[in-house]
Amino acid sequence: MREIYLDNAATTPMSPKVVDVITDEMKNDFGNASSTYALGRKARNVIDQARHQIAENINAKDSEIIFTSGGSESNNTAIFGTAYSRKNIGKKIITTKIEHPSVLNPMKRLENEGYDVVYLDVDETGHISLDQLKQELTPDTILVSVMAVNNEVGSIMPLEKIGALVKSSNAYFHVDDVQGMGTIDVDVKKMNIDLLSVSAHKINGPKFLGFLYENSAINLPSLVLGGEQETKRRAGTENVPGIAGFGEAVKELSEIGHQALQEKYERFQNIILKELDDHHIKYEINGGHGEGYSHHVLNLRLNGVSTTSLQTNLDLNGFAVSGGSACTAGSLEPSHVLIACFGADSPRINESIRISFGRYNTVDEVKAFAQELVKIVQRIQSRNK
């Protein structure tokens, strides 16, 4: 049976060139990048090249990029590092109700430690109110943490406007850019971003690798203690092959351009929506479809069809989609994002699936999915009458 993967917001297949780069490095560059002899210097050069490629993509300095084990570590480092190093200024932190668990769970811990965490509301489109943010920005606010693109409904946050507000306060501005990297343009200087987290496996790179951008004016304490790697900011021998692959993945995205990808993904969305419309399937889009959204995510409520039933039937027919965030998919808890957008009593909570596109999806795959989706929904809806 042919398998069609449409859960790219959870993870992405590695680019063939990335695999080649990693394999070549594993075979030929086994030196420790902290060593001063030739093999070590060669490994260091590989890391420096990847760091430059990544820094250039977000308009940062090379020295502002810290390699980590992934988006979760980067988020934890930014949040706990800021909270503990700035508690003399204040203990208020602002975030949103629709953040990733690697942001929300650190916030819960900080609340237990006496920090005042404010969770901004979102409307049914998945966007925050800038007025609410402005009202909550007080002199004792030390951090504002907002994701660039929501991983479940695709809403894009107005980063430049948020950055302008935060700049006029005492707070640092942290952005979880795990879903935004490669799908929207992010300029850390233009947007006044102080801290930014990215994960390699979301952009066709290797798993268990990411980076934290840290503005050169900031010096956060490290969460991982040991040696003096990453200019004493993150201990642990660098994963040279993985970092080389990460740099290659970012290079490929830069060459393609986020606009071209957005146009491709919007075409995919339109194929699915047209198929549903042509067959008079009742559905609702969770979040939205036009401006203000990343088109790589399409979250649909299929009226009267349970998430579990729909996802299972699609899986049995070779289509991989999600019922929500991959980080909470094993939980019995409903989507906190959909609850924040529509309320806990909304039927959308238990009747929605997330479809997410990637670089290697094709029009034929999306058409095959749309046709199968219609068949399954028609069958389930007729059975429920």
UniProtKB/TrEMBL annotation:
Catalytic activity line of the entry: (sulfur carrier)-H + L-cysteine = (sulfur carrier)-SH + L-alanine
SUPFAM superfamilies from the UniProt entry: PLP-dependent transferases
Start and end residues of each Aminotransferase class V domain: 4-369
Entry superkingdom: Bacteria
UniProt entry keywords in alphabetical sequence: Aminotransferase, Iron, Iron-sulfur, Metal-binding, Pyridoxal phosphate, Transferase
Listed Gene3D superfamilies: 1.10.260.50, Aspartate Aminotransferase, domain 1, Type I PLP-dependent aspartate aminotransferase-like (Major domain)
Cofactor(s) needed by this chain: pyridoxal 5'-phosphate
One Pfam family of this chain: Aminotran_5
EC identifiers of the protein: 2.8.1.7
Top-tier EC class: transferase
GO molecular function, one term: cysteine desulfurase activity
InterPro entries assigned: Aminotrans_V_dom (IPR000192), Cysteine_dSase (IPR016454), PyrdxlP-dep_Trfase (IPR015424), PyrdxlP-dep_Trfase_major (IPR015421), PyrdxlP-dep_Trfase_small (IPR015422)
PANTHER family per record: CYSTEINE DESULFURASE (PTHR11601:SF34), CYSTEINE DESULFURYLASE FAMILY MEMBER (PTHR11601)
UniProt record similarity statement: Belongs to the class-V pyridoxal-phosphate-dependent aminotransferase family. NifS/IscS subfamily.
Protein name: Aminotransferase, class V
Species of provenance: Lactobacillus ultunensis DSM 16047
